[in-house]
Amino acid sequence: MKRTLMTIAALFITLAAAAFTRVEIKVHSEAMNKDIPVIVALPDGYQTMNALRTVYLLHGYGDNYTAWSEKGNACPMADTYGVIIVMPDGGFDSWYYDSPVEPTYRYETFVARELVEYIDSHYRTKAEPSARAIAGLSMGGHGALYLAIRHQDVFGAAGSLSGGVDIRPFPDNWNIAKRLGTLAEHPDDWERNTVINMIDQINPDSLKIIFDCGTEDFFYEVNCALHDKLMEAHIPHDFYQRPGVHNWDYWRYSLKYHMLFFDKFFHSDSDANN
């Protein structure tokens, strides 16, 4: 009995040791002149690994950099897929824009340039688009597709979970008007900065896309509309719909499929050579 208990104890010690490392850091943004908190999840054995792929996860409106770690259970996936997972703070309501009406909001510059440069210079990454993916939920789903489309030299794959992929039906919601100005006064900014109107900028050879939405979600119709437009434009993508609402139960489940998609993307070259 004593030997059995010792064996079980040793097993638990081994399992505890074989785990990701969660690091909280602050990354300075020159564009916004402030330090921004970020969580980085490193896979077990990181110190002995070669250059790793990186997945950036963006939180939704009203949340912060801890959301994916504490509510989304994202960190263990660093171990599952052998990747670095980066979870930045995107502000309460930034929508990941460089705001044309509020110069203190430069979250596009921060995430797509400053943060990526910091991560590549401080961690053992494979610093190329084919080794970077970005995903997010709700406001962050919009942000992930928006940033990836505008920075295909940075990100090679993008995912949106219940994303606000067309902001125009929601002119009075979630402080979007504070970032772009009101729809009535700044219609051109709303047209230019909504994902559904940006598909002509997508190079299918440069950007792989996955997105999904619950059928009871208030963003369901705009996600279906994005799918239809991508189909009409013959742009390859993965789109999933299943029962669900706008909550963490849905996003935790959905993230598993996005990570599988990114894993396949990361290893597409090696698969093609086998």
What does this structure look like?
Strands 1-2-4-3-5-6-7-8 form an eight-stranded mixed β-sheet, sandwiched between helices. It has helices at 2-17, 67-70, 76-81, 107-122, 139-150, 176-180, 187-192, 220-232, 248-266, 268-273; strands at residues 21-29, 34-42, 54-58, 84-88, 132-137, 157-161, 208-214, 238-242. Strand 1 (21-29) and strand 2 (34-42) form a beta hairpin. The N and C termini lie far apart (49 Å). The protein is built from ten helices and eight strands. The longest helix is centred in the C-terminal third of the chain and has 19 residues, at 248-266. It has one domain: Alpha/Beta hydrolase fold, catalytic domain (Rossmann fold, 3-Layer(aba) Sandwich), CATH 3.40.50. It is α/β, with parallel strands linked by helices and 274 residues long. It is globular.
